[in-house]
Amino acid sequence: MKQIHRSLFTLMLLAVLFSCTKASLNYAENGNWVGRATFSGIAMGAGASFVINNIAYVGTGINPLIPHTKLQTMFSYSATAIPNKANGYDSAYGSWAQVGSFPGQGRSDAVGFTIGSTGYLGSGLANDGATALADFYSYNAAANTWTEIDSIHNGDSSYPRYDAVAFGFDTTAYVLTGTNQLYYFGDIWRYSPSTNTWIQQVAPPSTFSPRSGAISWVYNNQGYIVTGYTPGSSTATGNLCYDFWRFTPGSDTSTQGWYRLRDIYNTSPQSYDDSYTDIERTGGNGFLILGQPTGDKAYVTLGSANGVDVTYTWEYTFSTDLWNEKTPYEGTARTGACSWTLTGSVPSTAGVATTRGFIGTGLNQGSTAAFSDCEEFFPNQVYNQYD
């Protein structure tokens, strides 16, 4: 198993501190963040999310007001349009509802994914703040019920972790990376609902950085993984990953494919990445906004860089493998927020798109306070055009 021993790097010094003010941005063109319905649970962070039938499910995580007690509560978010609100810019746009509580022990830093019309949530960090978990559960939205499934293991050995990421496809899913406070993992595990088993896959290429706190998307039946924390790696700056990868799923009997995309740091002698100064981060968020006039895009926002919470937001264009800086997240900087992508055209006044990206909840640096706000990003709208 590919891993880095964490204890070797505990004395490494913090590097460059990032400012959250980007005066150079042209806010008239770079997108707008719009408030949506406030999360109806208690303010929390380090939760997990998945989407079933165009409804987001968000839960577990940390309530800083009750130390050493992780959450089991779950909520659904629906972005149904408000009647007679043609522009859709109402702060109560969308609605939250409490659903069946997660049946496993409370946890933070878990991972969620979807296979078909079933949601899954598992792994994470237990109440004691030290024990990594390997158990997983499936959620049936129609019945509002949870079922325990196979945990990540191989024979008699379990592989617990937290701060992992996942790729969910139509019939399978993959969970990869993460940490257990001793090691940073670069392994990958495939889950098949038909057999209810996890199978360890062939390791990624040797140039893939083991990491925690990364961001992942699924686009055109391929998985993408970017950012994250990776102490001592040759493909990192200040222990923040700058390697960027695309994953093509295989099967239990065929080898999946990995392709390294352009780095998210200024490592090329060409000029395209000269402005790539603050894409790297850990504990950030990502979502997709597809069908735009300029093509399909992915977005990275929030997280922390060298101990400082950041709001820098970047747009990735799939067709060109290039990044463009956008308006920073408009709310308070944070880490451990949840993000999700829903299908649906945004109002015509906001620009054409076929999916929508949302951010909600989160923790401040040090996890002493949590947030319950929720915002949607409109990449082609004039900055702060609407409250």
Overall description:
The protein has strands at 3-5, 32-35, 48-52, 55-59, 74-78, 95-99, 111-115, 118-125, 132-140, 145-149, 153-154, 157-158, 165-168, 173-176, 183-185, 188-192, 197-200, 215-219, 222-226, 236-237, 240-241, 245-248, 257-260, 285-292, 295-301, 304-305, 308-309, 313-317, 322-326, 338-343, 355-360, 374-378. It is an all-beta fold. It has a single domain (3-378), classed as Neuraminidase. Residues 6-24 have low confidence and may be disordered.
Layout of strands and helices, then pairs:
Elements: E1 3-5, E2 32-35, E3 48-52, E4 55-59, E5 74-78, E6 95-99, E7 111-115, E8 118-125, E9 132-140, E10 145-149, E11 153-154, E12 157-158, E13 165-168, E14 173-176, E15 183-185, E16 188-192, E17 197-200, E18 215-219, E19 222-226, E20 236-237, E21 240-241, E22 245-248, E23 257-260, E24 285-292, E25 295-301, E26 304-305, E27 308-309, E28 313-317, E29 322-326, E30 338-343, E31 355-360, E32 374-378
Descriptors for this entry?
mainly beta; 387 residues; 4-stranded antiparallel beta sheet; globular; 38% strand; single chain; Neuraminidase
Q: Tell me the CATH topology.
A: Neuraminidase
Number of separate structural domains: 1
CATH class: Mainly Beta
Helix content: under 10%
Enumerate how many helices there are, as a single number.
Answer: 0
Poorly predicted sequence stretches spanning 5 or more consecutive residues: 6-24
CATH 2nd-level architecture = 6 Propeller
